[in-house]
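Hi support team,

I submitted a single chain yesterday and got back a structure, but I'm not sure I'm reading the token output correctly. Could someone confirm the output below corresponds to the sequence I sent? I've pasted both exactly as they appear in my results page.

Thanks,
R.
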Amino acid sequence: MNKQKQVKRIFDSISAKYDLLNHLLSAGVDIYWRKKAIKLSGMNKDSILLDVACGTGDFAITARKSGVENIFGADLSHNMLSLFGKKAEWIEGKTVQTVAEQIPFKENSFTNITVAFGIRNFYSIPEGLSSFHEILKPGGKATVLEFRLPSNKLVKSFYLFYFNKVLPLIGRMISKDSEAYTYLPESVGDFHEKIDLVSLYKEAGFKNVKKYSLTFGLTQVVIGEK
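Hi R., thanks for writing in. Yes, this is the structure output for that exact sequence:
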């Protein structure tokens, strides 16, 4: 199974339990991470936001509560988008089922693009970032919030134990999908070893690329400007 089909199958499968597991498995810290990423990106009521890999809409809903009024969503999973529509009526007619590498919007359409915990699922991160650069307005920003492996050895050892042992067990019990929550730690480890987001941003044409570390290095926020 290729990566695109695998990701679509997994997220369609776990969509009904996705929000519960996100908050449970992160002990609610994911809410803080989203708010911090929005604040760092400097979004406001005049922003035009496209949330890519939007899932059930938690990042977009957080942005809406932060004052952003014009929001669109994109995701590969139909089931995730359907749940997003049920959680937020204002998104009706403003979501699209698509891969990030071929987003069907015109050039210079958005002031901001966000991806929360989804970029590691792209089948081609360079193509995805190039797609972002194309549809952003001049001066627009792409913001990625993603897991990483901490540099502190003690934190890293706890993190790896939790991600590789505890998380798959809880995820499997609640979601009933044995693959989904083994894929997560595998994808995070693979991403950490192989992907340098700052370099990929620059290769895609972004400038003023900045990287922020959150919560003992458990997550990173990378922001680049067109």
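A quick pointer for reading it: The longest helix spans residues 153-175. Let us know if anything else looks off.

Best,
Support desk
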